[in-house]
Structure formats: C-alpha cells, structure tokens
Amino acid sequence: xxxxxxxxxxxxxxxxxxxxxxxxxxxxxxxxxxxxxxxxxxxxxxxxxxxxxxxxxxxxxxxxxxxxxxxxxxxxxxxxxxxxxxxxxxxxxxxxxxxxxxxxxxxxxxxxxxxxxxxxxxx
Length: 123
What we know:
- Helix content is 16%, strand content 34%.
- It has one helix at 76-95, and strands at 10-20, 28-37, 42-51, 59-63, 70-75.
C-alpha cells in the first residue's frame, strides 16, 4: 500500500525546437520532448522527435493553444517562410537600428555646474 497516493496527469510536451537549414538541403525541424508530471512542474526522460518533410505543401491544423480549437491551417513551407522572414526582420533590426533623435539643449542648461557656488577671490 502506498502512503498518500495521489493521481497526477502525465503528458509529453516540446520544450525546445531546433531548425537545420543547411545549404543545398531541405530544412529539417527537431522537437526536443519531455514527459511532465502535472503538479510537480518538472520534466523527465527527454527524447527528440526529428522531422523531415517529404511534401512541403502538406497542410496541418493551427490550434488555439489554450482550447485546442482549430483556427486555421498552414504548410511546412509556410513555417519555413515565416521563420526565414522573422530572421531577416530581426537581423535587419539589429544591423540597422533606428537613428537616435537629437535634442537641442538650450545654452543656459549647459552651464558648467562646477562653477556654481565656488568662492573664487573670497579666500
């Protein structure tokens, strides 16, 4: 007999995703998976599901992650295009940051504060 036996939900989830986009090859996606015991909040016994695509135009359902409801569809090729576009966007944002706005400060505000309050000639 087990002391304080409790029932817990056990499920598998993907905790990481890797995308290989080698030159002259079809992009591949790897999902790193783990078993999770609900209530403990810790994953166990990770595995890896490596996928390659034979038909880039095959459609799959897009799900609302909270309800599981189907909200649309996409293809593997759509995902590759979105990830590639995100990379180009982020790289461009990094390499071409917005110019800093130059604000002109009135001359009276640039007065050297170290000159204020000195007792020159009062020694």
